[in-house]
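Journal club prep — side note

Before the paper discussion, L.F. wants everyone to see what a predicted structure for a comparable chain looks like in token form. Sequence:
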Amino acid sequence: MPKIVPIKGVGTKNPLMRLFLDLFSFEALFVLFLFAGRYKADPRFAFFPVDPTVLFLVASMAIGLILLFQEKIYLPGTYALGIWVVFIVYLWISMVWGVGRSYGREKVMLATVMNTWCLIAGAMIMANSRERVSRFMRLVIMFAFWLGIEALIAWSKQGFRGRILINNGDSYLGFGRVCGLGAIIACAFWATRKGLDFTRIGLMALLGMFMLVLLIGGGRGPLIAGIVPMLLIAVIGWRVSRSGRVRVMKMQIPILIALVGIIGVIVYSFTSPDADLGALATLNRFRGIVSGDLESHSDLRRSLNLENAILGISRAPIFGHGIGSWPIIVNNSDYQDHPHNMILEILYESGLVGLAIVACVFIVLTRKINVHRLRTDPLLLAAAMMSVNVFMNAMTSGDLPENRQVFAMLGLLLVRSPEEEESEDAAEDDDDSSPEGDEPPDIDEEGDLSEFRRLRPRTEERWMQADEPL
């Protein structure tokens, strides 16, 4: 069976060839599945015969399973998957004592299929190849760029004011999250790239566009989740020499300047009542919180959800109330509802036992992270920042299946180091270059050993004769 991608021997430094390989790859199918909710309601994509989420889930699983069979099993990802399967089994068992009905069954099935597949794709397929991780990040930037353009067009059509909806109903939370990921990837590679070439200028422009979209979109969570991970660059940039001097890495300086500027604009907008924030809907919503005016229904609902979650967790702290129990206990109705916080959701429905299992998954996925690699490996730095971003977003909205991006991004933290991948490629090349005829004879038995010793001088004699000049 021929291998799919990456294709060895094809030069990918050509931008057109790289774009072709990116668009027709496993990672492209996975991105279209992961962010299907951002475009599937758009009438321009009504030509899909089925739900795009299902379509690209099945397509990415078909190609991904072929890749898993073709390539060696990536053990770090396998360990994380094994622990996650324990959690999934526990969720199914929790239906025995839980009160969840139709929503609980649907939720556990979606988590079993979609969240598990996201973990497999991130931790076992993409993390096994640095080229795959790099391709995935490029595709996320392309997807975020398209959503950002759509948001800017919608913003201009409504007079550069107010919260934005795009693609026939995709809200500020949806496209804001994707643009936040795009901003983080652009920031990571911009900060770690040397010199001032065309690529770095392009990354700077993309970062500026994504941050503008976050400021005008109206989503407070996506803006915070987009800025906070960038502080990771500032944290890892400090070095203390043996003499006790504090050294600052060059990549830290522009990030610090940019963050100080953004924070300064936010503080000014909060402390200046006369400042017109109509064009910057996100900052306008922040001002409502600072002034003590909870301006939206979502603010009041989150406060109520927190109270209900703490009360419910205290009643069943060990094993939880069972999967899908939140809407029945809190609202006395069986429909999709949740605390809008992934940790509270896990504690409420599966208790401390479920949270401990998920924590073990997180520990296995983050065990390859260290400060040295974050400073020297842009792929790991970007993956770490993306993981912080999606985890922060999962603390404000979405249930477990809707926050499946968390497990895909966390899986990328297991990406191979450059040295590890080079040694793996060298070992594969050695295996491929050694023909079967060059293998030494089987000398396990004593008779075979004596026969090998008897034939060896004759073999060497023939080689010497062949080397003599004619």
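L.F.'s comment for the group: The longest helix spans residues 130-157. Keep this in mind when we get to the figures.
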